[in-house]
Specification:
Layout (H helix, E strand, L loop, with lengths): L22 E3 L5 E6 L2 E7 L15 E4 L4 E11 L4 E9 L4 E7 L2 E7 L16 E4 L2 E20 L8 E8 L4 E8 L2 E10 L4 E3 L1
Antiparallel strand pairs: 1-2, 1-10, 2-3, 4-5, 4-14, 5-6, 5-10, 6-7, 7-8, 8-13, 9-10, 10-11, 11-12, 12-13
Length: 202
């Protein structure tokens, strides 16, 4: 979107919205702002992003091992009771959109699966199996997580306090499959682990 936009809550200038963005946080008043049919509306608060060491930061290009150079444009933080993890949305240097999750130093790179590639009848329980593209995956983690904060621009609307049931599936050769379910929605992501020692400023 090329035109300048302002926060509908406080009137402050918003950053230039990226083509894929449907949600942005106002850096002035802390509101989350959603784009709906070319109009902006306040969708709640963006939450408080408590300071923590980060491998990735908004707007800073980083090398993700063999994946290439990635720049995050959105940042979410989820709390799962005994800790939190961060998810970053952004693009590789060539333009491909990615999600990068960082949890206790582990780094996963994933892309959203289109609905036609979602595994059918996948159960969210330990040991359950699912298949995507001929590869078999096994559930090794199932938890609830709550969105506590977000920053930047995101491709879909979120709300602080949203609770997601998620399942992480492990495959062969470091491949991973993740499923998320929440009130009124579901999403699936496919990707791989990245050596955190190969994540460094570009």
């Amino acid at each position: 979107m090329a035109e300048a936009r302002t926060c509908p809550n406080c009137g402050a200038a918003l950053p230039r919205l990226l083509a894929h963005a449907r949600m942005v946080d106002c850096g002035f008043c802390g509101s989350s702002v959603m784009l709906e049919d070319a109009a902006l509306r306040v969708a709640g608060e963006a939450g408080t992003m408590l300071d923590a060491p980060e491998l990735i930061g908004l707007g800073r290009a980083v090398e993700l091992g063999d994946e290439g150079v990635f720049t995050a444009t959105g940042h979410l933080r989820y709390d799962y009771g005994r800790g939190h993890w961060d998810e970053y949305h952004g693009a590789l240097l060539g333009g491909a959109l990615l999600w990068v999750a960082v949890d206790e130093g582990d780094v996963a790179v994933q892309t959203a699966l289109p609905r036609e590639r979602w595994p059918r009848g996948a159960a969210f329980r330990l040991g359950a199996q699912a298949e995507v593209g001929g590869e078999r995956f096994t559930v090794d983690e199932v938890e609830n997580a709550t969105l506590t904060a977000f920053r930047g621009q995101l491709p879909e609307p979120v709300a602080v306090g949203d609770v997601h049931l998620y399942a992480n599936f492990s495959g062969e050769r470091g491949m991973i499959l993740s499923g998320e379910r929440w009130a009124g929605g579901e999403a699936w992501f496919l990707g791989r682990w990245v050596d955190p020692f190969r994540v460094r400023p570009a």
